[in-house]
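Local shape tokens

___
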Amino acid sequence: MLKRAAVLLKTEPEVIALSFARMADALGNSLLIIIIPLYIAAQPSASFPLPTELLVGVAISLYGFIFAFSQPFWGYASDRLGKRKPFILAGLLLMTGATLGFMFADRYLWILVLRGLQGVGVAMIIPSVLVLISRVTVRRSRGNAMGVYSTFRMVGFATGPLLAGILHVKFGFNAAFMVGAAFLIVAMVLVQVTVKERPLGTDAPAEAPAEAPVGGPAGGPDHSPASPAQDQSPGILPSATILGLMVSTIVLACSLSMISALENEFNERLSQTALGFGVAFSALTVSRLFVQIPIGRLSDRIGRKGIIIGGLLALAPLTVLFGYVTSTGQLIGLRVLQGVATAGVAAPAFALAGDLARKGGEGREMSFVTMGFGLGMGLGPLIAGGLAGYVGFKVPFYVVGGFALGAAALVWRWAEESIAPGEWALDEV
């Protein structure tokens, strides 16, 4: 079955297994994004006399901040040890234990502790998964592989809210926690059985047109896009391209996560239930299911940078419009369009980072890009909860929309392109 899926999606079986692992942790996290606001509202905290919106924002954001700031450490540790699989398995195990722990969390402080442990777990998983995907793919197929990876992650992110809404309405909180843990256990088994360790030097074979150095005029210096990854030794700081991609993923994650802190406000404004909000939240990820792989393949053909910039430019006005929705249908429609825009950022950004990451330091360098996603997941709910709670409901959407425009400018100014004009056509000859 795994091999059939790999053939259908034009990628390797290991990419499918690793993508499923990310799907499982994304499902567990998005499930809790729906459950946590209801869980906190159901048991107010006397120890933290703050607005419920802010308490929810802090709890959701803590996960993002911890997995963001700890990713470079785990990426560096995996580089030093030359192993990735043990980090993935340990992270999945920690996520499983923390998810089940919510069944016994009767205080706000315990919710924060468990969210922190989940953040550490996913920080162990992400850099190693991306490095292994980069190791088993070549540059002209890496955009497709990252599209598959992002699509699976989005399946989890889309399924979690729907499951959370159904399970909460029908069976209560504990059923949601147990289902999330079950998916993580399946992912552990699949990774253990399917994925092989890929030490440095066992990358997928490189095709000559895409990977071999291309001399400049009259025997001039090598200007091929692959040379930064091949010729530079790992440095202390990431390259300008990696930093630009990091900013773009911060904005991407902010835009898709910020409405989670405002669930209660949206439900009240739109007269909807947790299930209605779950459907709207999942609409973004459902739309990405249809466009993420084609966009990844397109970035293999025409380049990564322009697609990333286009996605960020589209994201800016779409984010602002969330402050003006008046019905559940409008909320769902905006999330669908937002999904298309974020798809233009995600897979091309991960593929570009994989193309240009310096050998021997891939885990650390790619962890900066994924750290950006974690920071955005943390900042989004915090910005939304803080500004909406103390300033106004529409303000956070204007702020994050402005961030998207700024990120587009940074990627345009800082990022390199890894796909030379006409290179894909040469590969196909």
